[in-house]
Amino acid sequence: MSGIRALQKEKTRRQLIDAALGQLSSERSFSSLSLREVAKEAGLAPTSFYRHFSDMDELGLTLVDEAGLTLRQLMRQARQRIEKGGSVIQISVRTFMEFIENNGNIFRLLLRERSGTSPAFRAAVNREIRYFTLELCDYLQQANKLDAELAYLQANAAVTIVFSAGSDALDCDKKDLAALAQRTIKQLRFIARGAFEFSVRNDNLIELRKTKVKGVTK
Amino acid sequence: MSGIRALQKEKTRRQLIDAALGQLSSERSFSSLSLREVAKEAGLAPTSFYRHFSDMDELGLTLVDEAGLTLRQLMRQARQRIEKGGSVIQISVRTFMEFIENNGNIFRLLLRERSGTSPAFRAAVNREIRYFTLELCDYLQQANKLDAELAYLQANAAVTIVFSAGSDALDCDKKDLAALAQRTIKQLRFIARGAFEFSVRNDNLIELRKTKVKGVTK
DNA sequence: TAGAATAGCGTACATGTGTACACCGAAACA
DNA sequence: TGTTTCGGTGTACACATGTACGCTATTCTA
């Protein structure tokens, strides 16, 4: 395949996607974009839009997928940095903050559509965040030898905190970013520490039960 | 004052507010409401809208204020319950979940406009959440004898977690609500425990410094 | 009680929207 | 080579929106 035609089509499809992304800003949400605007920005006649997407919604879901991809790419980047040594939490937060500085509008898209009016959008965003959380959960489970439930709860809480910090970062003076990151790091440490304490307590309980059982069966 | 005229005006103003609130739903955001729709729902001619608000934005900000009020009312309710005894965290979460069940659309409004396209809206919502957080912070500071910074970090993290849980609750099957609440409670315990551990560590450091200083000055 | 103020109405208009339709030219295919 | 497919265009339409303007009826005020 790859015919000259399919190639061109793919190219203008990208133009549409980029046009949409390019119009997003702190004062412009995806749902406030019109088909006509996007087509115009992409240098297309309004009706040509339909050759690529049946709907603005379809375009939007594509954008969410794209955002999820960028997010997972981010994870990989963070893991690479971590393997080179350093505080896991610190590196993760720093990586995430960099992501937001470079991809503010994509992150905004996720934040907004997560609580938006389209069930499909909400589901798509939540799916991406779930992937993100589960990857972190796996990591915690094997790195910190945590119980599956505890690991999930910690991962979920951590992602929530970090996303919220990201949201704050979007509206933040640049000079306050470092302080925000520091606070976020401390909060993540609270969570990690708390989860660890609970894990220890659980282990003790298990030990207790074991000895009890031994005592009885003996 | 209170003339029959001012009274009537106040009444139809309320009708507009209620009309707007009434149109909000999981699939309808405030920003997707049109002036005409709201006026119609309130039983008014479109142009009469201007006798009460100069803008849909002005109406929106009024709604956010209203929501903040409801939120603080919620806090009071929770405090009353707490004074009657019981786990602070458990009662708070339960109260919040009840709030969301009864005021889903108001909560949605806050969630959405927090990441919305209007700087004024974002500021208004953040202000309400800040009040909420500071009240909790005060409580933690005196009830748990925490450092001001630690108390704030804990309060902020807790509010973030609870709001996020609230957001999940909005899209949740009713049967899963209890489990969600349980998970949230555990996460809040992580945070509380973590903050406590850090506080203890800090105190020890302070003790250490004190003895050091004593040793030197003696 | 006469005159001013004003909440609410209806009409009217310019503007932006999604999309149906017919058409064109170049690539794909037989 | 002749035919089909298809990405892109321009026109056209019905519709919803915000809001300017002038009018009316009722309340307020002097």
Number of domains of chain A: 2
Number of helices of chain A: 8
SSE string of chain A: HHHHHHHH
CATH architecture of the largest domain in chain A: Orthogonal Bundle
How many β-strand stretches of chain A?
0
Basic shape of chain A: elongated
Approximate strand percentage of chain A: under 5%
Overall mean pLDDT score of chain A? 91
Tell me about this structure:
By secondary structure, chain A is mainly α. Chain A is built from eight helices and no strands. Chain A folds into two domains: 1-54, Arc Repressor Mutant, subunit A (Orthogonal Bundle); 56-217, Orthogonal Bundle (Tetracycline Repressor, domain 2). Chain A binds a DNA duplex (30 and 30 nucleotides) through helix 1.
Lay out the secondary structure:
2 copies of one chain form a homodimer.
Chain A: H1 4-23, H2 35-41, H3 56-83, H4 88-102, H5 104-114, H6 119-143, H7 148-170, H8 177-217
Chain A binds a DNA duplex (30 and 30 nucleotides) through helix 1.
